[in-house]
Amino acid sequence: MFSSAGIAETYFKDIGLDTIVANELLIKRANLYSNLNPDTIVINGDITNKNIKNKILDNSNNISYLIATPPCQGVSRAGKNHNLSDMINDERNYLIFHVIEIIHKKKPDY
After folding, report:
1. Within 13 Å and on the Cβ side, how many CA atoms surround 71?
2. Closest C-alpha to 109, from 60, 73, 72, 70
3. Average pLDDT of 32-60?
């Protein structure tokens, strides 16, 4: 989840791990991921959208691991959020709860 171009999975095939499904919000990154990983189902879209989340759930049966790298900009003081109030109001900081929901439903080993 939050796959970007797939950097986290770069060497998985080398060690015998297959990436079944990936999700990325931005279409250009999702397309790059698809080109680099043609055997992976890449779902482009926002995980807060019920249809996107259901596509992820429907395409991720019998998974052993789940990797999620949610955006850090919402909690970074180097960005636009320079105080706690700004951080609390940044919706990106709550994306992790959607990941937790998928973890509870799919129960990956890792």
Report:
1. 16
2. 60
3. 93
Q: Which residues contact 58 (CB under 8 A, 6 or more apart)?
A: none
3-class SS string, 5-34? CCHHHCCCHHHCCCCCEEEECCHHHHHHHH
Token digits for 52? 């996107």
Q: Would the pTM count as exceeding 0.90?
A: no
Residue 46: both structure tokens together: 């926002």
Mean pLDDT, all residues of the chain? 89
Active site members: 72
d(C-alpha 107, C-alpha 36), whole Å = 27
Residues 33/94, Cβ–Cβ less than 8 Å = no
